[in-house]
Amino acid sequence: MHRLPFAIGVTARAQRAGSGLFLNALSRTLHSTSFATVTVEAISSSHPAEVKNLVQGEWKVSSGWNWLLDPLNGSPFIKVADVQEAEIEPFVHSLCRCPKYGLHNPLRAQDRYLLYGDVSAKAARMLAQPQVSEFFARLIQRVSPKSYNQALGEVNVTQKFLENFSGDQVRFLARSFAVPGNHLGQQSHGYRWPYGPVAIITPFNFPLEIPVLQLMGALYMGNKPIIKVDSKVSIVMEQMLRLLHDCGLPREDVDFINSDGKTMNKLLREAKPQMTLFTGSSRVAENLAVDLKGRIKLEDAGYDWKILGPDVQEVDYVAWVCDQDAYACSGQKCSAQSILFIHENWASSELLSKMQLLAGRRKLQDLTIGPVLTVTTESMLEHIQKLLKIPGSELLFGGEELENHSIPKIYGALKPTAVFVPLAEILKPDNFELVTKEIFGPFQEVLGKSVNGTTYAGIRARTTGAPQNHWFGPAGDPRGAGIGTPEAIKLVWSCHREIIHDIGPLPQNWEIPPPS
């Protein structure tokens, strides 16, 4: 079953206002966010927000501005200082200034482990304040429209991560070990060592959670990162960096750049960071792996399967889980349910009809369905038509453009959709590639519980609702990255360095031995 966006039309008032969806409950909160340079409810074509770059501790603009369209009404509402290829030298120089032993390591500037424990503690306390969490949840909604609960959940996960790595937890990440040697005075020591200059590239769908978790992991281990977030949503990370500066993050420790992919690729090839973390498209990931000569960790896109075996139980709950996994955030999660394999016992139950009812509850007014930011309406409708040409396939629900919306044509606007495709047809070589093509929107095929290298098993398992304390990332690829846990941070943002101490004393009556 394929999933595509499904929603009820926007009211005329919301259509005129666009950003008016975000006005409620903001006026009394945002004035207390002293770090912020924007007021969420004021962002509009008449009062556009500006996003700057950070290099060598200074916020700077570039020679040109990239205007972003409001994903709800198409009006230009944010201008991003877009760095051009001729302007990358300060960023290259900043990365190259970082020594290969990093800004700190287990043998140098160890006080910085404590510094980052304090920064994390302060940032966690800030994000726990209702005014601040509200600010970021609403800002996320402005640029990557999703329901308030989904946006706030992203803020809460980020806050809990920072809380988890407060105090001594940062230096615990660099825990070393020693092994006795062969004689008195000899001992081998293993250290978690930073790479030094590193780069982070993250996508649009989690504007706060993914960049913050990866950025802080890089900093904890002693690296000097440059971070690029998809320009459509980079305003969220820009504001978060300002919050982190208020919490004690040294301004020179992180560079922040807005640019197109070509410019960023040039920067990476010239600066030669020792490691780059890329989260996003598998196609781009493979190209980067070649350009960067393998110095890369990948958390790339996933085509995610859910399997329902013969035992039919808790149909209401399973239907709700399928709806959430397929259509929350309009399907724009790397863990979103792409294909659902159902046993014939489930097919004869009320599961599919209940899923249709749940999908019908989703409305553009509350952003439980919304714009698809990387796939157009036309592309998704075309994909549906190709699937429906497969013998035995059937449109279960959806398959239509949203009604009464003002979402610009560069984005997608479709109802959550499910397409049935017979399993026997999927296995045919001519159909397999088409059926398993990833559509990063509310679109699924009915025919999984697996997300890349993370598997969710059991009646209550959800591909998009696991606890925040779990590892998320691909398996089976040595380039695979992780996020969110101590193991993930150590894997992605540090390497093993061994130092052998051999300090004597020499054996009594030692003599020069024969040559060997």
UniProtKB/TrEMBL annotation:
Residue span, Aldehyde dehydrogenase domain: 121-446
Cited Pfam families: Aldedh
UniProt keyword GTP-binding, yes or no: no
Example GO BP: L-proline catabolic process to L-glutamate
GO molecular function, one term: L-glutamate gamma-semialdehyde dehydrogenase activity
InterPro entries (alphabetical): Ald_DH/histidinol_DH (IPR016161), Ald_DH_C (IPR016163), Ald_DH_CS_CYS (IPR016160), Ald_DH_N (IPR016162), Aldehyde_DH_dom (IPR015590), ALDH7A1-like (IPR044638)
Keyword tags: NAD, Oxidoreductase
Coiled coil residues, start to end: none
GO cellular component: mitochondrion
Family listed: Belongs to the aldehyde dehydrogenase family.
Protein's name in the database: Aldehyde dehydrogenase domain-containing protein
